[in-house]
Amino acid sequence: MRNSTLFFYCLSAEVLVLGLLLVHASVREGAAQDSLNEKSALVKRLGLTDLCLFTEARYTRHLSQADLNTPFQDHPLSLEHFPSGSFTQPPTGVTQSR
Amino acid sequence: MNAWIEKQRYIIDFTISSLLRRKVKNLGLLALYTLIVFILASTMFFTYSIKKEASLILKGSPEIVVQKILAGRHDLFPVGYIDTIKQIRGVVGVESRLWGYYYDSLVGANYTLLTPPKTAAGESHAKTASVEGEAGDADSAASSKPLLELNGAKLEPGTLIIGNGIARLRKLTRDDYMPFRAFDGTIMNLRIAGTLSSQSELVSSDLMLITEDDFRKLFGIDTQHVTDVIVTVKNPSEVATVAAKIKKRLIDSRPIIRDEILRTYDSIFNWRGGMMIVVFSAAVLAFVIFAWDKASGLSAGERREIGILKAVGWETSDVILMKFWEGAIVSLSAFFGGVILAYVHVFFTGSLVFEPALKGWSSLYPNFDLTPFINAEQLTTLFFLTVVPYTVATIVPIWRAATIDPDSAMRHTGE
Amino acid sequence: MIELVNVKKVFNAGNPSEFSALNSVNLCIAENHVTVLKGPSGSGKTTLLSIVGCMSRPSAGRVKLNGREITSLPERFLTDIRRKTFGFIFQQPNLIKGISVLENVMLPAYPLGEKRSQLRIKALHGLNELNLSSKANAKVEWLSGGEAQRVSIVRALINDPGIIIADEPTAHLDTKLSYRFMEIIEKFKAEGKTVIITSHDPLVYEAAMVDRVVNLRDGRIEDMPA
Q1: Greater confidence, B145 or B253?
Q2: d(CA C125, CA C130)
């Protein structure tokens, strides 16, 4: 087979696969409505304020409830010692001047 | 038109033959390029999905949460403050919250213990798994009725409803008993009444629902204090104003409004955050090195080849076209390969590669079964940031070589 | 028919290393003739050849092809003419490694976008004419010197040019292969093509089929055309 033909087949295959994955995405999005609704309902019923992403410490678990001091409660010079601190920043309300 | 297509095909034929001549080097290049795209795309998919989900799910979070601050720390909230807040104009309701953390030394995990509020903040959704026991009758004899009923599990005194992450970690099922060390050293044995669904792990993985009495007994918090309160406001657009009023009346309070909660999660995994900047910088640098290597010139062999092509009748534009295709073939293959792998990685394997970084020091780690929210804009940006520069970088160095006139080509190749 | 009028070629103009490769060259190349440009190294043979073959432009003077002036044509048109009119045979075969003989032969025709099946047939036919059919799919690295030279000849012919230009074609061939090469040239002449060769090999310029020998020395033609 000609090289160029092979290349076009491969490329078309890749485009096709990507297309299928995008279709999968929209299908999953539709199907996920139930799961999303369940989570929303739980949030509302229990009055939750945060996603359960990082359970290492109080201020990583409840990001939105943390204040600027909490990471440093152990010691004033206590620098960030959890990896998750490098993913997240203090809640917006805390760092902006009001 | 046909001649043009045929010409492109010929040139692609030749370009691929050229690339295959140095198989190992070019395959290595392709692999590395694909890896870079994979990392960037995975990061994009993951962070966007979480942010999107957060923005959807947390819409129902409390309008205002009020904390009490003592010496810069979150202190217990006196019940007496509640009336002060109730008197503020615009406030519809104030609900106290009891929640805290328990450290389980056995597995080294932190759990979030929570007493479900008596009424849902706002209206409750009908068609969900969480069903309030006897809705509407909040102040009837609550002690005899279960505080909460979820999936048939009743939360009664002496019981817990636990999140699926805890069940997984401690291998607990319904009717198992779990010992807790109370604040005064006594042991409390609580029975597992049920588990929260695995689908809700993103919000509930480490939760333990507990009754109010058990909570107070466990942590030694007297009835005059609660952890914080939730405030419901009549007019949603007045939330900020009410929050300001609360702050004014209760100097040592800290109101947190829903908008702040949502924005916190909007900026999570922001590229400006530590880890993200490292990942992106590394990827960008690797890419720059690539492109620079490509752009920094031709080998003698490549130059000779271009000379031959010019000598047998290829124009400058033909040679440049050939180089363009060389760049494009590698770029396109790497781009699609990387994006497809990234999609599979994030949405089929739950971001396996990122797990060590995300898990950090926590023992309890939720199942990241994310919903695929895809942002086409990000994909196109990634495309233009990778494919275009690389293709251009491939063309640049040959500009000079391609413009060699055939006479010189003939001379040099004659040697 | 190719005509050169007062052609001059200067290299590295303006630099201390400036030198004139050709000076006041007036030449007419006759059609369907075999013309040999003869002269010692440095006489400007290759330069003259490349100007005749539209591979470079003169610094001064004019070049006409079949009565049409081509000296100042833009590169695109010049390349087009060159592709269609001339076939070049170099000293070295200059084949591209890593691709097959057949692909090497088809290479000059790629930019023209001709239909592949037809091009293949033309290429195979050309290879057949020079007894190279069995080598069509071989890698060029495996060819002997003579075979490679012949492949480069087939390549030069792929666009069916009317004028064949060869630069020192026998420089790397032994006697037997040189004679074989001249036989091929004779064939071209019989087919109506025009042939221009540069060489200082007596085997070439003393061959019977050669119609005219032009002597070059220090960038000038020693004999004037009769």
Answers
A1: B253
A2: 9
Is this complex scored with an ipTM above 0.90?
A: no
CB-based contact B256 A84, cutoff 8 Å: no
Q: Are C58 and C2 in contact (CB under 8 A)?
A: no
Query: pLDDT confidence of A23, banded at 50, 70, 90?
Result: very high
Cα separation, B190 vs B172, whole angstroms: 12
Residue B89 sits at the chain A interface (C-beta within 8 Å): no
- If you write DSSP's letter for every residue of C125-183 in order, what string do you get? HHHHHTT-GGGTTSBGGG--HHHHHHHHHHHHHTT--SEEEEESTTTT--HHHHHHHHH
Q: Which residues contact A55 (CB under 8 A, 6 or more apart)?
A: A61, B109, B110, B112, B205, B206, B362, B363, B364, B365
How confident is residue B162, by pLDDT bands cut at 50, 70 and 90?
A: very high
pTM (two decimals): 0.81
3-state secondary structure of B33: helix
- Alpha-carbon distance of C70 to C65, in angstroms, equals 7
**What is the pLDDT averaged over residues A5-21?**
93
Give me the residue from C55, C91, C95 closest to B406, CB to CB: C55
- Structure tokens given for B18: 């050229």
Close Cβ partners of C141 (under 8 Å, ≥ 6 residues apart):
C97
Buried b (16+ CB within 10 A) or exposed e, C104-125: bbbbbbbbbbbebeebbebbbe
- β-strand partners of A6: none
C100 burial level (CB within 10 Å; 0-12, 13-18, 19+): middle
Q: How would you class B149 by CB atoms within 10 Å of its CB: exposed for 0-12, middle for 13-18, buried for 19 or more?
A: buried
Report the chain B residue with the minimal C-alpha distance to residue A60: B362
| DSSP string over B260-282 | HHHHHHHSTT-TTSHHHHHHHHH
Residues of B in contact with A43 (CB under 8 A): 57-58, 60-61, 203
